[in-house]
Amino acid sequence: MAPPWTVLYLFGIAIVACAEEASVYTVPPTTFGANGYPNWGAGTWPPSTVGVPLVPQQTESWILSLLDQFDPDRIQSTIQTLVNFGTRHTASTTTSTTRGIGAARQWLLKEMTALAAPSKGLIKVSMPCYEQPAVPADGIPFAVQLCNVQAEITGAVDPNRTYVYTGHYDSRRINNSDYENYAPGADDDASAVAIALEIVRILAPSLAKNPPASSLIIAAVAGEEQGLFGSNFLAQTLKNASVDVQGNFNNDIVGSGSNAPFDPMNEHTIRVFGAGTDYLTLPAEVIQEIITTGYQDDTPARHLGRFIQEVNAGAAQVTDMQVALIYKPDRFFRGGDHESFLKAGFPGIRFTEPQEDFYHQHQDPRVQDGIVYGDEIEYVDFEYTARVGKVNLLSMLSIANAPGTPSNFTYDTEIGFLATSESTPASFLENIIKLYWNTDPSDPLLDHYEIVWRPLASQQWTHMLNVGMETTTILPISKDNAVFGLRAVGKNGMKSPATYALAVASQYFG
Ligand SMILES: *[C@@H]1O[C@H](CO)[C@@H](O)[C@H](O)[C@H]1NC(C)=O
Ligand SMILES: *[C@@H]1O[C@H](CO)[C@@H](O)[C@H](O)[C@H]1NC(C)=O
Ligand SMILES: *[C@@H]1O[C@H](CO)[C@@H](O)[C@H](O)[C@H]1NC(C)=O
Ligand SMILES: *[C@@H]1O[C@H](CO)[C@@H](O)[C@H](O)[C@H]1NC(C)=O
């Protein structure tokens, strides 16, 4: 069937001439967002006769009320306590009760245990350790006992599905092997450990009434600065136990609101770094299909980032934050604990402040040429860290109470493509896509499925379509003009992250 319209370009103006009814189309001016930047990726094209513009999913009020409980004073107190251990270098002393990483982890274990007590056993706090051999080249001059401190909450409906929060409690100086001298590590990364303790404190009394449907782990890890050792131990432990980890929320350097010149917008923005195909632990031919079909921005990590951005947009009046997605595994030539999860085959993203303060990170505290260096607590904005905590807890409770991410979302390669023979039905030759997916009617959380799509160059989904409990649908949209995702919608309205649409290998994603 020929399209009922043709487009003429006249003096740069597109004129759509319809066969049935003549109408004139005038190219709209590029629109500008509140920040004055043009919305090139806002998704005004391709046109669509199905679905509706995406409306950010809304969060239940009991979750929003928990977010109000983040306490900047407690965040300050946790960071100050951690700074007071002098150094938390991974190879620092473990025999002192007041200085070094040993004293720091004992305090964390005690504090987390106390904060978990109101859960009446629903939060299990532990300190798993292992012997990390010396890695002199990377800052561990001799073998050390390396310990994580973690809180585990078992999901009430789908306990195998697990989401992991990480922040590292070790600290460093310019010389990464210097395990003795003062290394306050306030922003990097006591800020994230303070959020971890706040999450445990806030969740503990709420769990009897509102247990999450799937499991949560809140961890303060060590050995980050020398090679992501603690997070690797955690991720590999979970992998070896066949735990279904569907997301790592890694927070690292989430405290600075004061690096001058500092735009007020930055004080209400958190970056979420998501890796592309480079970390996918998939067969090479699957990665090849992802790249050749233009789905390289649709890794599980980036889907997780989109999920966080969307949920936050629906609750921004409470978090007072916006989420900036960064399509990079991490910052320039740097890394973090989410990579341990990515390497284990789990989706992981990194939260980091929008404008890093290099004067006050990894630096030996000192004054040089009139400039003050060092990762001291006075450069942390506790209100900002509290807002980052809100985005984390919002996202983690939303994802943990949504149905699991659906699987096996595929499309027909013969429909919406060239004919292969004269017997190819004419109905196959449209600019359409036929999608298929697996349903899981036994999932007690599930209400229905939803297809989402966006122009390829848009970061966020722009459209959504309720497809009920069907297992297939045809959309009148060219698969070259949009990228498609499928998500599960819960009875509580919460929606899973989206999954890939791939022609041949979607069973790898769930
Ligand atoms: C770094 O610190 C270690 C441990 O104190 C020391 O042995 C080494 O000499 C230091 N390196 C430099 C370049 O100062
Ligand atoms: C995971 O299993 C591998 C293979 O058995 C083993 O080498 C590794 O030590 C295990 N890691 C952890 C953290 O349990
Ligand atoms: C948890 O999920 C993983 C990944 O789907 C699976 O391999 C494992 O068998 C499951 N474990 C249990 C106890 O169901
Ligand atoms: C994935 O979907 C395809 C097409 O609907 C189906 O043939 C296949 O059996 C499914 N694979 C799995 C693992 O469910």
UniProtKB/TrEMBL annotation:
The record's annotation in SUPFAM superfamilies points to:
Zn-dependent exopeptidases (SSF53187)
UniProt keyword list:
Hydrolase, Metal-binding, Protease, Signal, Zinc
Domain Peptidase M28, first and last residues per copy: 148-364
**Top-rank lineage group of the source organism:** Eukaryota
> Which cofactor(s) does the record list?
Zn(2+)
Q: Which family does it belong to?
A: Belongs to the peptidase M28 family. M28B subfamily.
Designated name of the protein: Peptide hydrolase
Supply the source organism for this entry: Oidiodendron maius (strain Zn)
